[in-house]
Amino acid sequence: MSRTLTFSIFRHNPRDPASTPRVESYQLTEAAGMTLFIALNMIRENQAPDLNFDFVCRAGVCGSCAMLINGRPGLACRTLTQTLPDHITLYPLPGFALIADLSVNTGIWMREMAERLQTWVHGQDEPDVNALEARMEPELAEEIYELDRCIECGCCVAACGTAQMRPEFVAAVGLNKIARFRLDPRDLRKDADYYELIGNDQGIFGCMSLLGCEDLCPKGLPLQTQLAFMRRKMAMQGIRKWIPLVPA
């Protein structure tokens, strides 16, 4: 038999002086194959036309619909209501500027992180758009692609204890970006260059290894492995910086 679902949803519009943070409840009859995205659309169409939440692709690719689902970061479009209890609480992701209700501005945070970490290929020459793409071994291309699957949804930031205590921490999404460019042979930077970007408490040494990022990454990225690897490499680089005779 179909269940009656109760949704307790955070409501607040910081641009409206009359708005105050609150939780409002709505009820829906569950349908087969219903996702949180479908449920939220039904609530907005029939009960709360001013409900704010984000979506673009509805396929777990854009990351726009990330939110706290019963206290855990996740994507609304990829979360089936049948996997949740009858009472579902929805809150916006912490750590990002609130737009309204369940909608947060991850774009500002991601852009600032990208600019700080210079997340683009650093080469010596100006790119030649007419030249053939440089060859790369398929195995290496697969390794880079694996890390490039990050959709910047913000779930790892919301799940990170350090990011919640230190707003300047670049979190797993930023460290994963560095790991990706470190693999890319077209990027001419060395570990000494990466150390200047993430060899501090705002980078890899600020990670407390709670691994909420890996547990809750909707794309299943190998963040635990990458964080451990980058910590070793940056620790060795830090030692070599102060003791130059230590071998690479």
TrEMBL record:
This is succinate dehydrogenase. GO terms for molecular function: 2 iron, 2 sulfur cluster binding; 3 iron, 4 sulfur cluster binding; 4 iron, 4 sulfur cluster binding; electron transfer activity; metal ion binding; succinate dehydrogenase (quinone) activity. It comes from Brachymonas denitrificans DSM 15123. Keywords: 2Fe-2S, 3Fe-4S, 4Fe-4S, Iron, Iron-sulfur, Metal-binding, Oxidoreductase, Tricarboxylic acid cycle. It holds the Pfam family Fer4_8. Residues 141-170 form the 4Fe-4S ferredoxin-type domain. One of its GO terms (biological process) is tricarboxylic acid cycle. Gene3D superfamilies: 3.10.20.30, Alpha-helical ferredoxin. Its cofactor is [4Fe-4S] cluster; [3Fe-4S] cluster; [2Fe-2S] cluster.
